[in-house]
From TrEMBL, chains A, B:
InterPro entries: Dehydroquinate_synthase (IPR050071), DHQS/DOIS_N (IPR030960), DHQS_C (IPR056179)
Keyword NAD recorded: yes
Superkingdom: Bacteria
GO molecular function, one term: 3-dehydroquinate synthase activity
Domain 3-dehydroquinate synthase N-terminal: 87-199
GO biological process terms on file: amino acid biosynthetic process; aromatic amino acid family biosynthetic process
UniProt entry tagged with the keyword Mitochondrion: no
Enzyme class: lyase
Name listed for the protein in its UniProt record: 3-dehydroquinate synthase
3-dehydroquinate synthase C-terminal domain sequence ranges: 201-327
E.C. code: 4.2.3.4
């Protein structure tokens, strides 16, 4: 037998950089942003191939988009379209059909998309998650540009590093961590969102404000009416601040979530369960608002924050037009929620880690929750269901 | 319109660490390595779930392995088996069948494997590539331990950061970069390899030696006879040195291959083509030996290295028992090779980048190849096909 061979230690860091750009009318001929991003032709003169994938819900409201893209790209010397844009269904349907992943992989093959080409996705969070996933696994990663078109995707999902699809009904069961090459938020897309999608994404901004930034929470309180009345100025400001905080969180923490803590999941354990129970008829952001309301009341009942502060949170959600209760939460003496907590732990693995509030603007991680208090919190929300709060 | 919102710049590094361990008879009751690796039970007392996946070719030669694993794991207080080991076909078949990926994802679901559980793969490079891929996409990454059982996987593929499966016959078309939690090389497995698999992996060691380390090349020359006669001492030494160089290369360079250069692909452009042309009846390592021979002769014809040095390379391969030519290379006036060069460029994307030799132990990157010289090199290899070289 050989002399013992000592273990070989491997250790390296992989640097990632990308920028999130803000604009309006990205593909208007006079808008230089996308052209500038792609830059000059390479020394070898090879054009960069672009493959666009578009959310059908976006196309329905922006029917001239493919033509605008074709004309715009024709004016970029360093780029060519690999093919006509690929249309995929918008919303959760994009993530439920494995055939769509195959279709995108086939396109990569068919159009000769390589690791120096770009797959550009235009759509809501669901379409971005699908396309980001396909781009991440094809050739072990093709460059990917995200153009998010909803509030939620512009301020949260689209500016981060995760992608994924559902597997046999299990949400995000498959996916990767894969930073985009770039993100471009075009505020014009927001104008065609329906009421619910306009509102839903605001919940993520309330979330980061509550766990990290009291001043931002106060700004949201001050602009709640404007936001509820679809003021685009207020919305673009909200998105910018929320996206920035989200990105800072990623870079200062554990970008690929190798540990167990996920403070940005404040309010999300109940939200995930509620999305399931309602078969996703409740939007992610709508569920998050309810989940935050629940964990805020819980924080109060656990003696962490004042009743007055909890009421401010509920009040701002109501001003924004959110419902703060759903009957599914209370079914079987909240047995649904009990299971939701277990599933949340299983999904993250390791010890249960839940974020609560220690003050407005200050989250805190805890490792267990009292089920009696959860039930009380549910009761409180159900009793005021659809009755406006007033801050006393 | 709002004031212009400046872009938000994101920038972070993700640190990865893992160790490659060397042992024999990993699951013998008295071997502490695996037990020590898993460590003490967590403070919460939760056992770590282990899901084993075994290469059917390994099982055929090591039929008691599942029992040994069951007994061994029963003796680790901090771990439990999630299920009986899953068997998958060995060799390229593992990577050609999408149903196998689904089967592994299903197992993750069915057995409640979370991001703190471990999927442990035991097998050749193909099985490790399959299981590594499934582990990387399930829950966006479940912890993964690799136990490579071939020379190639112990000294090259198994100690790196890549995984992947084939897609409609396209080799490694889908995959990710995902470092393992740990790698354990058990030399006992090597004893049951057939002649071809014993030999094939040695080509990767010749490769790193030629481009990086003259002393290692001379060591291989000195031990070529011993290696050809299945001397395990020599083989474990070769594997250790090759694995170390491979790992150093990864950590000192561009681990996730975000650029175009891949110096470790010396000899691989022709090798990949040859694997295809022969429908993978030529093993990866066998093809790499031929590819290295070709690019070595090319380096000589291009005036980069001496004829004597090129002969040393061909000679050592012949001592090791490698064939240095395959008729598919010369078909249609080497049109196959011309296409191989283009495909290699397309796969990497961007500018063509090929590694040649500037001396034994010193690779150099070039950005074009002279097709006339390639044909001459092919002619040279074909003329000496199966005729032993002597170093004059
Ligand atoms: N990757 C992450 O980190 C992350 C984080 C949070 C949420 N998500 C995912 O995001 C998804 C939800 O995304 P979402 O809230 O953006 O909704 P969505 O993608 O489900 O889209 C909602 C609807 O809006 C339509 N739509 C999109 N843009 C439009 C526009 N400009 N005008 C009119 N209609 C438009 C879509 O076609 C769809 O019908 C979920 O699948 C969730 O899991 C991902
Ligand atoms: N991920 C990477 O970075 C990387 C690098 C190089 C190659 N690869 C891949 O590795 C694969 C080739 O791997 P390989 O050369 O290890 O061969 P292999 O995995 O194809 O296995 C060859 C044969 O040996 C059998 N086998 C495995 N271990 C055995 C043992 N101990 N005793 C007896 N039989 C055994 C297998 O069942 C199979 O039949 C290719 O798919 C190639 O693409 C991956
Ligand atoms: Zn969310
Ligand atoms: Zn190789």
């Amino acid at each position: 037998m050989n002399a013992v061979q000592p273990p070989l230690q491997q250790s390296f860091s992989v640097p990632f950089t990308y920028a999130v750009h803000f604009t309006r009318h990205l593909f208007a001929p006079e808008n230089p942003l996308f052209r500038d991003y792609l830059g000059q032709p390479s020394p070898t003169g090879q054009a960069k191939k672009l493959l666009f994938v578009i959310d059908s819900g976006v196309l329905a409201h922006h029917p001239t988009l493919p033509d605008a893209i074709a004309q715009y790209v024709a004016g970029i010397p360093s780029a060519i379209l690999a093919a006509d844009p690929i249309l995929v269904p918008g919303g959760e349907a994009a993530k439920n059909d494995p055939a769509l992943v195959d279709r995108l992989i086939d396109a990569v093959d068919q159009y000769g998309i390589d690791r120096h080409s770009y797959i550009v996705a235009i759509g809501g969070g669901a379409v971005l998650d699908l396309v980001g996933y396909a781009a991440a696994i094809a050739h072990r990663g093709v460059r990917h540009i995200r153009i998010p078109t909803t509030v939620l995707s512009q301020n949260d999902s689209g500016v981060g590093v995760k992608n994924g699809v559902n597997y046999r009904g299990k949400k995000n069961f498959i996916g990767t961590f894969a930073p985009p090459a770039a993100v471009i938020n075009d505020a014009h897309f927001l104008t065609t969102l329906d009421e619910r999608d306009w509102r839903a994404g605001i919940a993520e901004a309330v979330k980061v404000a509550l766990i990290k930034d009291l001043a931002f929470f106060e700004w949201i309180e001050a602009h709640a009416e404007a936001l509820a009345h679809r003021d685009t100025e207020a919305m673009t400001e909200l998105i910018y601040r929320c996206a920035r905080m989200h990105m800072q969180h990623i870079s200062s923490g554990d970008p690929f979530e190798l540990g167990s803590a996920r403070p940005l999941d404040f309010g999300h354990w109940a939200a995930h369960k509620l999305e399931y129970l309602t078969n996703f008829s409740v939007r992610h952001g709508e569920a998050v608002a309810i989940g935050i309301a629940l964990d805020t009341v819980y924080s109060q009942l656990a003696g962490r924050i004042l009743a007055h502060d909890a009421d401010r949170v509920l009040h701002v959600f109501q001003q924004l037009g959110f419902d703060l209760f759903h009957p599914a939460l209370a079914e079987n003496e909240s047995e649904n929620l009990r299971r939701g907590l277990t599933e949340f732990q299983e999904h993250l693995g390791g010890q249960l880690t839940i974020t609560l509030l220690d003050a407005l603007g200050q989250g805190i991680e805890v490792h267990d929750m009292d089920f009696g208090l959860i039930q009380q919190a549910v009761g409180r929300l159900s009793s005021v269901y659809s009755v406006p709060f007033s801050v006393g």
